[in-house]
Amino acid sequence: MLQGLAELGQAYLGFLNPLSIAYGMSGALLGIMVGCLPGLSATLCIALLTTLTIKLPANTAILILVCSYVGTLYGGSRTAILLNIPGTAANAASCADGHALALRGEAGRAIGIATSGAFMGTLFGVLCLAAFTPLLANVALSFGAYEFFWLALFGVTMSGSLVGTDPIKGWIMGVLGLFVAQIGQEGLYSFDRFTFGWDQLSGGISLIPALVGAFGFAEVLTTLADPISKQIVKMNDSVLPRFREVAQYWRTVLRSGVIGVLTGLIPGVGEDSGAWMSYAAAKAVSRERAQFGKGSIDGLMAAETGDMASIPGHIIPALALGIPGSAPSAVLMAAMIIHGIQPGPMMLIEHPQFVYDVVAMTSIATISILIFGLFLVRPLLYVLRVPRAVLMPIIFVLCVVGAYASASRLFDVYCMLAIGIGAFFLRRHGYQMAPFVLGLVLGGLLDKSLRRGLVLSNGDITPFFTRPISMGLAIVTVFTMLLYVPAFRRGLKRITGAIETQLRRLRPGSTHQHVERKP
């Protein structure tokens, strides 16, 4: 424990210099600006910044990406409050109460409450990130090739619930990502696969062009195809929240923080789930539940605390297990791999300090959103007035430059354009790109683990099912897939209902207890 505290202190000291603070605050500010623009997501922001920070040192680049991740999700609350349009999906729960307060002339108050909730939710998540990531990674150190195979397969299985409501479409995109990850020379014997004699494909499809195409160029096409315009509510009141007003909702903050972190730990559950579950829990126990949806401070505080607390929650399984919990954390994990840091159990051995570095990075992001959220409110409102006709060409240029700069290959630009056009048409039919990227990121781990396991067992597949941890992961993976089958869900519901009925009958004093009849 003392060693962990010493490493955490060393991480904070390593970032307490003007350059690191400037990088972190710049990333958070850029994230807030992206979040303020409806239709642009945290995933897009991280993907574009990954290309722009490729030449920076690993810690500096990841610092900018983590701060932009936090900033984008926070910035989305501005449009939710002022336009009734969530800047990101995670801010949808803030629309009802936030916009209702704005319509009453309390837009500044709503932004102040949202900022307070976001700050405290992220701070709570940072504490959990520091406490639980090393513990979870230490447990996962007992994993071998067999366990890593099932862990990667479980991550792809969770792509069915990563985004959207149709698990089949999620699995299709996850398998497509796995297939794309197999293109090029395989890892053990450097044999070309699926190259069709094209030498350019021997190196495989690089992560950066794939990320930029799937989230950057596709987002440009989608935004231009579906323009959004709405009147901004004017803000005339003060943004600075009163301490007493924030302090009286400490139970809401604590409850929503726990819910946000727990939902973040579940792979495939996005930040929006943390917001909605926190909002529902607050409404269930609140004394002002009649005000929910009409301008409730409690509801707005719960939604913003829950969605921001889920950010460190999503980072925990990404760092400790190598399984991202959401689309932005999947892209963040891909960026770590690009910079030579492989998330997963081995990270504590290869990069033991990095977990605490991420804690320090997230702390800088937390402080940044508090400062920018309270003192740069009115200048940031001008971002909402930037015409799409100006913004989208700039993003397109960044996509092209980023794809080319990663390896100085024109082929990567062609890959970015092809993946972006394909992603645009797939998204029009309900196929989301986050499962595709998840499959692309985990494809290499799954392939190498499967082949190494078969080499170690001389082609015998039984160790994949007989080793205790492998067996447990296999059962969890199969059970997760079966949960998406309606017939299995109905059967499981009947069984649990029957068990609950029997337990209710066995309780002392139950009216359903069996009474013997007299002859």
Could you describe the 3D structure shown?
This protein is mainly α. It has one domain (17-182, 196-466). Helix content is 70%, strand content 1%. It contains 23 helices and two strands. The protein has helices at 2-15, 18-35, 42-52, 58-82, 95-103, 107-140, 145-157, 167-181, 207-225, 243-247, 250-265, 271-285, 297-320, 327-338, 347-350, 354-375, 377-381, 388-405, 410-428, 434-456, 463-466, 468-482, 486-506, and strands spanning 184-185, 192-193. Strands 1-2 form a two-stranded antiparallel ribbon. Helix 3 packs antiparallel against helix 4, helix 4 (58-82) packs antiparallel against helix 13 and helix 6 crosses helix 11. The radius of gyration is 24 Å and the shape is globular. The model is unreliable at 512-519 (pLDDT under 50).
Which helices and strands appear, and what pairs or packs with what?
Elements (H helix, E strand, L loop, with lengths): L1 H14 L2 H18 L6 H11 L5 H25 L12 H9 L3 H34 L4 H13 L9 H15 L2 E2 L6 E2 L13 H19 L17 H5 L2 H16 L5 H15 L11 H24 L6 H12 L8 H4 L3 H22 L1 H5 L6 H18 L4 H19 L5 H23 L6 H4 L1 H15 L3 H21 L13
Antiparallel strand pairs: 1-2
Tell how many strands the DSSP assignment holds.
Answer: 2
Helix count, per DSSP?
23
Number of domains: 1
Q: For the largest beta sheet, what order do the strands appear in spatially?
A: 1-2
Q: What is the end-to-end distance?
A: 69 Å
Elements, N to C (H/E)? HHHHHHHHEEHHHHHHHHHHHHHHH
Broad structural category: mainly alpha
The low-confidence parts are 512-519
Tell me, what's the shape?
A: globular
